[in-house]
Amino acid sequence: MSLRPYQSKLSNDIDQKWAEGCRNVLAVAPTGAGKTRLVAHKIHQESGASVAVAHRRELVTQMSLALAREGVRHRVIGPDSVRRACVQGHMDEIGRSYFDPNSKCAVAGVDTLVTHPKDDPWLKQVQLWVMDEAHHVLEENKWGRSTAMFPNARGLGVTATPVRADGKGLGANADGVFNAMVLGPSMRDLIGMGCLADYRIVCPPVKIDLSNVHVTASGDFSPSELREARHKSSVTGDVVAHYLKFAKGKRGVTFEVDVESAVETATAFKAAGVPAEVLSAKTPDMLRALIMRRFRAGEILQIVNVDLLGEGLDVPAIEVVSMARPTESFSLYAQQFGRALRIMAGKEYALILDHVGNVMRHRPPDAKRTWTLDRRERRGSNGPSDAIPIRVCDNPECNTPYERVLLACPNCGHEPVPAARSTPAQVDGDLQELDPAVLAALRGEIEDVNEPIKVPYGLGGAAAGGYVKQKGLKKDAQRDLQYKMAVWGGWQASLGRSVREAQKRFFFRFGMDVLSAMALNAKEAEKLYVEICDDLDENGVIDA
Question: Which domain holds residue 209?
Fold first, then answer.
């Protein structure tokens, strides 16, 4: 199986970092980019001993099958049930087993690996370790301790989301083990290539009260408080009703907070004529496999699951994801969202039904983000502080989220009506939406910098000199600022954006409307001038 071009580039970038002396490299690529395929390829390239580590039974068996596809014989470090599942997977797909208890290559479950005898000579022979879902890896936790068992190995971690809800950094200079990061294509890139399905999001009104649910030191909601809030809510009925309204007959996965809620939701689906089953960590292995086979065959249309299908699992049959579990963790949210993006015959788009405000909390997962190996201020989204806010279309037949800079819903064309029009903030900087009297007052605050400075009557001597100096500084600063604002506006026009949309983008990007910017004093004008220059530079806009 050959790598796709973007996978080959990512593989070469990893090799380059190793060649530069970076011992442990973190590779970032979206859900559905084929990271397991990449891992199998890197292990296939390794001539020495190697190990691929995952943290759940499903991911261990998935990794084992990926190695079998590459023709790599390997042993399995895990319970006998996992070994049998790996062999069965080889036989079902390939027709022969690649399990070899004497192989120098291994696939390991992290919980079994950390209890492996420390005096096993193989540990020192390993030249390469690879870690799936590597955003878990911190130096002091079990994932990090497992990597330390291979003192002579270089390392490779793969993840779609190199960020932790607790704000800890994955870099060796922070809390993790990685010395460098390489970036693959973005989710939007892969959608454009046809490697992932595009999506549509529907955000019905949120009917779960999280006001008494605290965020713990882990960076996510308190599990006990979240369960209580979920049990008091009316989310179950909405999950079923909106599935029937927007996705009837499609195969979907619903993410729930606990088994009790999952059973309640699955029962409601069945009562509505939708075949549904519950999956959780407590589901026996054989029953879990049977449910997944029936789901792929279309005999089951809804799997209601609890913390099981979020990470890593490749289930192309998913067409719709229903979110009934609120989360402050961007990683968890992005993994759940990504379950529906695998391409399959007949799938026009993936449908995301968000009943708990996750999209508003984190923004769509293909929004622009800047990743780092360093620690960061703890926040769920890891999004930029100047990100454009999102609104949800208030047409009940639509409920599509979209950026507030757009004048109308891109899905149904509905135009929102401002609650008031007396300040620029109430209309998101869209000056056309302001009351005429307010607009006139704003214009009246702008001093015409092209007019000669006129000293007020009766002001003389040093006071007049100081007045002229201050006005001169403001004129100079405003002249530079307004020129740079014109360049920024021209850039927006070149992108096909209307003046109104550009005004709204300016408001959200820089925190004020364009008329108020033109009335700033010299110091504030100089500060905004620098911010605009930085924004133009970051986006590669050349000032001719």
Answer: 191-365
Q: What is the CA radius of gyration of the chain?
A: 28
The CA distance from 352 to 333, in Å, is 11
Asked if residue 226 and residue 156 are part of one domain, the reply reads: no
User: Does residue 119 sit within a domain?
Assistant: yes
Instruction: Tell me the pLDDT tens digit for each residue of 428-445.
Output: 999 999 999 988 888 877
Amino acid identity, position 104: K
The reported pLDDT for the residue numbered 316 is 63
pLDDT in tens, 352-372: 999 999 999 998 988 888 899
Number of domains within the chain? 3
Q: What is the pLDDT of residue 404?
A: 92
DSSP letter for each residue of 107-137: EEEHHHHTTS-TT-THHHHEEEEEESSGGG-
State residue 470's pLDDT score: 72
Task: State the Cα–Cα distance between residues 382 and 378, nearest whole angstrom.
Answer: 8
Residue 190 host element (H or E) = helix 187-193
Distance CA 88, CA 77 (A): 16
Say if residue 440 is in the same domain as residue 355.
Answer: no
> Which residue type does 6 have?
Y
CA distance 449 to 93: 75
Q: Where is the domain boundary, 137, 154, 185? A: 185
Query: Beta partners for 76?
Result: 107
- How many other C-beta atoms are found inside a 10 Å radius of the C-beta of residue 360? 15
Three-class SS of 286-343: HHHHHHHHHHHCCCCCEEEECCCCCCCCCCCCCCEEEECCCCCCHHHHHHHHHCCCEC
Q: Quick check: 178 and 172 in contact, CB under 8 A?
A: yes
Please check whether residues 474 and 499 belong to one and the same domain: yes
* Residue 325, domain member (yes or no): yes
Opening angle at CA 81, ends 54 and 79, nearest 5: 55
Do 510 and 527 fall into the same domain?
yes
Q: How far apart are CA 367 and CA 31, in angstroms?
A: 14
| Single pTM value for the model | 0.82
12 and 35 housed in the same domain: yes
Q: Where are the alpha helices (DSSP H) in 395-520?
A: 436-444, 461-494, 499-510, 514-517
522, amino acid identity: A
Residue 486: CA atoms inside 13 Å, Cβ hemisphere, count? 7
Helical H segments across 327-445, by residue range: 330-338, 358-362, 436-444
- What's the CATH code of the domain at 164? 3.40.50.300
Residue 31 maps to a domain = yes
Q: Which of 38, 150, 62, 39 is nearest to 104 (CA)?
A: 150
Both 52 and 165 in one domain: the answer is: yes
Q: How confident is the model at residue 450 (pLDDT cuts 50, 70, 90)?
A: low
Boundary of a domain, candidates 365, 383, 405:
365
Mean pLDDT of 203-231: 93
Instruction: Answer whether residue 402 is part of any domain.
Output: no
* Class of residue 230 by CB neighbours under 10 A (exposed 0-12, middle 13-18, buried 19+): buried
- Residues 281, 178, single domain; the answer is no
Do 64 and 170 lie in one domain? The reply is yes
